[in-house]
Design goal:
Elements lengths: L2 E6 L2 E6 L6 H9 L9 H20 L5 H15 L18 H18 L12 H5 L5 H37 L4 E6 L2 E7 H21 L6 E2 L14 H15 L4 E2 L3 H6 L2 H30 L2 E2 L17 H25 L9 H26 L3 E2 L1 H10 L8 H4 L1 H13 L5 H9 L1 H7 L2 H4 L12
Parallel strand pairs: 5-6
Antiparallel strand pairs: 1-2, 3-4, 7-8
């Protein structure tokens, strides 16, 4: 391999001539080898969008020549399109508030722009990573702005994915609308309902998740680009500070706004904590609903698709592995919410030094949830009901009598349960038909009556 030499204030190193990154990235690569997880590429693409906006603003104001600008913009566009991914080798966890990642993008953009101009990588006289690509910027305004952009795009993906998941449950709500079953509270039989109504509650929970996810991007639209090191804009022209946000809106298509208090937005990252809390709410719903589906399958009221053999020791055993995976994914994302809150709270004075951890955690949660929603939606579509098992549990439950209290009164209902118990009968529905007549029983236990909101008083309050 051929090498080129690059130097900084700490000395010089050899860099592979074929590599797009430079000395700062090489040092960071050697310094931070912690997780084996790379920086989320959605963040890299967002940083490239910021670099493009800054470059165009600088060109328009006369700080960058057009030929150099065109090369930088072209390099940024390649990254935004998903190319040059091999040029970003850094560990997700790194010191320096994201400086290593910012410099990694600066160096890759510079070296690719140099190639576009016909030069060799490392010839920074053509395009310089700091003096050109990072002109009028700091990691401290580029990185937080890019994290917000990456999060907004991923939130939109997540909202769409949850909408599909919601739709899968709504389809089952319709399919199971006429299947009567017993409801349960505190893991004990309660009053009758329909299986469709049970699935409607699942769908509504995800409906709220979808809406919250869609709306919470508003919390991320205020950015600190132009604030440079600590939010004062020191080192950047005033015209540039006002222009760069306009360029960034055009490039991203997002309704971004420059903060009226750039010092605040540079120092404080609580908006991410708020958004992470929304993700945690989705995590809570996923765990609850996935576990309910496991229990309904255990009871035999629904049948889950068999997707893989469940045991190396017990032939024929099949486990609800998709639902187990959903629960684990949701627990992981909930743990990330703690990480986001802790990272945000540990910023000091005018900077959050722990943005790499914060960004890694929140973007990982979004990635997890997008994938989980797709997996679960496909799985839910294959769920089948077992109407005979549903009605079997319902007809055997003594709490079924609660549906008759408005017609026969509490005392008479208690008497009937006593007679039923003494007679050692098993099917309460059949017993009630004998005592009250088939017409009354079938009407009261019909899906339409059970799911009506309350009962109709045929007297003066009808």
């Amino acid at each position: 391999m051929e090498y080129r030499k690059e130097k900084d204030s700490l000395g010089q190193k050899q860099i592979g001539q074929n590599l797009y990154w430079g000395l700062h990235t090489q040092r960071a690569k050697e310094n931070f080898s912690i997780t084996n997880y790379s920086v989320n590429f959605s963040l890299i693409k967002a940083i490239a969008m910021v670099k493009k906006a800054c470059c165009l603003a600088n060109c328009e104001l006369g700080y960058l020549e057009e030929k150099k600008t065109a090369a930088i913009v072209s390099a940024c566009d390649e990254i935004i399109a998903g190319k040059l991914q091999d040029g970003f080798p850094l560990d997700a966890l790194q010191g320096g508030a994201g400086t290593s990642t910012n410099m990694n993008v600066n160096e890759v953009v510079a070296n690719r722009a140099i190639e576009i101009l016909g030069g060799k990588k490392g010839d920074y006289s053509l395009v310089h990573p700091i003096e050109d690509v990072n002109l009028h910027q700091s990691t401290n305004d580029v990185y937080p702005t890019a994290v917000k952009i990456a999060c907004i795009f991923r939130l939109r993906d997540l909202s769409k994915a949850i909408a599909v998941l919601q739709g899968a449950f709504q389809e089952k709500e319709k399919e199971f609308a006429e299947i009567v079953k017993i409801g349960r509270t505190e893991l004990q039989n309660a009053v009758p309902m329909t299986l469709g109504a049970e699935f409607s509650a699942f769908a509504e929970a995800f409906s709220r998740d979808r809406w919250r996810t869609f709306k919470c991007e508003e919390r991320l639209r205020v950015v600190n680009i132009g604030g440079t090191s600590i939010g004062t804009g020191l080192g950047a022209p005033r015209k540039y500070i006002f222009l760069v946000i306009e360029k960034l809106r055009e490039i991203t298509g997002l309704g971004l706004a420059r903060s009226e208090n750039l010092i605040d937005q540079t120092a404080n990252t609580d908006a991410f904590v708020e958004v992470s809390g929304i993700l945690k709410a989705h995590s809570s719903n996923l765990i609850k609903i996935a576990n309910d589906l496991r229990l309904l399958h255990l009871l035999g009221e629904i049948e889950l698709a068999k997707v893989q053999v469940g045991s190396s020791a017990m032939p024929g055993k099949v486990n609800p592995v998709i639902l187990e995976a959903v629960i684990q994914a949701a627990i992981k994302a909930a743990a990330n919410d703690y990480i986001v809150a802790q990272a945000a709270s540990r910023s000091t004075f005018q900077i959050n030094e722990f943005m790499p951890l914060l960004s890694f955690a929140i973007l990982e949660s979004m990635d997890i949830f997008v994938n989980t929603a797709s997996m679960l939606a496909d799985f839910v579509a294959k769920i089948k009901a077992n109407p005979s098992k549903c009605i079997q549990y319902c007809d055997k439950s003594t709490t079924l009598i609660t549906a008759f209290v408005p017609q026969i009164g509490y005392d008479r209902a208690s008497e009937l349960i006593g007679e039923f118990t003494l007679a050692k009968r098993e099917n309460l529905r059949e017993f009630l038909i004998e005592k009250l007549g088939g017409e009354m029983v079938e009407k009261i236990l019909s899906p339409a009556n059970l799911m009506a909101l309350g009962y109709r008083d045929n007297g003066k309050n009808a």
